Amino acid sequence: MNEPLYERLQRLKRTRHGDGEESRTGRAELDGAETVESADSSLSRIGFRPAGSGIRERRVYRRIGEQAGRIRQLCDPPGGHLIPGDRKPLLFFDAETTGLSAGAGTVAFLVGAARIVSDDTVEVVQLLLPDYPFEPEFLARTATLLSGDSRLVSYNGKSFDTHVLRSRFLQSGCPWEEPQQLDLLYSTRRLWSSVIPDCRLSTVEAFVLGIERAIDLPGSEVPERYFAFLETGAGEVMREVIAHHEQDMVSLVLLLAAIENVLAAAPDGACATRLSPDSVGAARMLVQHDAEKAIGVLRRAVDASTPVAGRRAAMVMLAGLLKRRGEYSEAAEIWSALFREGRSELAGIELAKHLEHRERDFEAALAVCERVARLHGASTPSLDHRKSRLLRKAAGRASV
């Protein structure tokens, strides 16, 4: 896999056509034509049809149930938590590439987009690059598929897929009006990274969406399947790659609907997915749109039998939101509990601030600062400054 792509493609062509003198004659051209014809025939058996002089296209329709209708509804104003409701068409986008790095030598050979066409059905379009010389035409077709008046929905697309495409468009000189993009990886990490083994899409499918792929191809094997196709012209070696790619896009539709449903159900606890999300992660997403909902989620997490670490994190965020809203007494109760039970320095400092500035109880605030210093093992300049100020205030009150 360390061999430069261009050199590898040239070697594959030499292997396909032969290395002798005959390969530089009309016989080599005939052999090449036979290979292309064979490749077209085998690609047609897995659903691909010509879409220009060198590009192949596959179009299928998948029924996915009410989730499609849910997303269609949220595309209208006022929208959802992730979907802005601006009526821009959503394109659930994914690309397969010749390598797992986003370097300049990596080429996207399979690009697809799924779009919702009814309340229970999505249309999936896949474009295949059958050989390297057709890349300019492939990119032009891709630019049409991923038009700028749409909104892309991807999974790790911002840092990888579109980065690869952007690089190829720049190198080829082909224009592309890149659409706005919603990358579901970031929302998934916030909601479930603390409760699932990892955030690979296949893991999210299994733990969150309840999808078990009967046969799936590891992403690391995808480039080799494509190189095998270039060498042999046998479309069948791409069958699992095509199925893997198609399911990725369908899963994006289901995942976006699941995330929107989870956030809409908060804080009632009604879970739209197989696995409940992390409460703090959900609150962080909700607070941008509805602080009251975020507080409700955190209160529920604090009151429920949440694991200790998760409960403490929820308490810290809840106290911060209450402070922001001016509900200082309830926030102070939480800081006091955190400081007492969890020996939290942060909670201790916040409690000392509250006692000093709002309760005007300088002695109690000073006592908390002393306990923070003992907990820390040593005082700090900021803590010393606070203690000195409290001593002056306490002395001033005593002298009155």
Strand content: 5-15%
Largest sheet: 7 strands, mixed
CATH-defined fold name of the largest domain = Nucleotidyltransferase, domain 5
Which range best describes the helical content: under 10%, 10-25%, 25-40%, 40-55%, 55-70% or over 70%? 55-70%
Distance between the termini: 81 Å
Q: How many E-type strands? A: 7
Major sheet: arrangement of strands: 1-2-5-4-3-6-7
Shape: elongated
Q: Just give the CATH class of the largest domain.
A: Alpha Beta
CATH-defined superfamily of the largest domain: Ribonuclease H-like superfamily/Ribonuclease H
Question: How many separate domains make up the residues?
Answer: 2
Number of helical segments?
A: 16
What integer is the average pLDDT? 87
Spell out the helices and strands N to C.
HHEEHEEEHEHEHHHHHHHHHHH
Could you say what the CATH architecture of the largest domain is?
A: 2-Layer Sandwich
Which parts are unreliable, with pLDDT below 50 for 5 consecutive residues or more?
Answer: 20-35
Structural class: alpha/beta
Rg computed from alpha carbons, rounded to a whole number of angstroms: 29 Å
